[in-house]
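In this supplementary section we document a worked example of the pipeline. Step one takes a protein sequence of length 251 as its only input; no multiple sequence alignment statistics are reported here. Step two produces a three-dimensional model, which step three serialises into structure tokens for compact storage. The input and output of this example are shown verbatim.
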Amino acid sequence: MRRFEAAAGLVKTKPGYLGLVVRDRRTGATWRTGTPDHVMWTSSTIKLAIATSLLERARTGEVTLDATARRQLAAMMSVSDNDAADALWKRYGGDAMVPRFQRVYGMTGLTFVPGSPRYWGFMKASADDLQRLMSYVLDKLDPADRGYLVDAMRHVGQIQQWGVWAAGPAARPGTKDGWSIESDPGGKHWCTSAVGFAGPDERYVVAVMYHLPPGTGTIDAGVHAVSDAVATVFGAPTPAPVTVPDPSTGL
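The serialised model returned by step three reads:
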């Protein structure tokens, strides 16, 4: 409880919209602070939903994932490869995938950004939505597909070693991060987010999203804010020893 209180105090010091959700899969208890119901740009966190959908559809025989698709899926999860996500999105249905994200994975707040293309890179959701997505993966996905995603998220490339990663090695975390510069009323601003798990047997589901105010924040500020919030919850050191991605890699 003290760690949650400390994390809530940290979140309150950050400008903009910062939402954090932690769900205990063993007890069902859910702890939320900040603005976890505020919809923000998903950036690359939506790639977890794409990967989940493709694995499920391949298992039922609806689609076939050949060697090329498997390589792209691995790259999308490991280093958040945008070209891989583009190729998979175009090949396997594009926006026709999204109703499954909303209805089956529980991402009820997920929406395309009005006035933008109906493309994976132009979507918004809340930290609550990401928590429900991760919970679906851990609680309902076929064990083999679940194992694939858990392993992929535990062994991400250096570019994604922040966010839920900041829970620390003892917690054996896994993460899928997102980072991008986006436009909203008031101007362009950074968005940094992460979804994943930590603890023995992936006990804790974690989702955190941060919409920095236009003109006031950098990718460094965003990455450290979400990472330090997670680290505080799990009793890991802060400032969290994380890797900040090159800003040019965002999405």
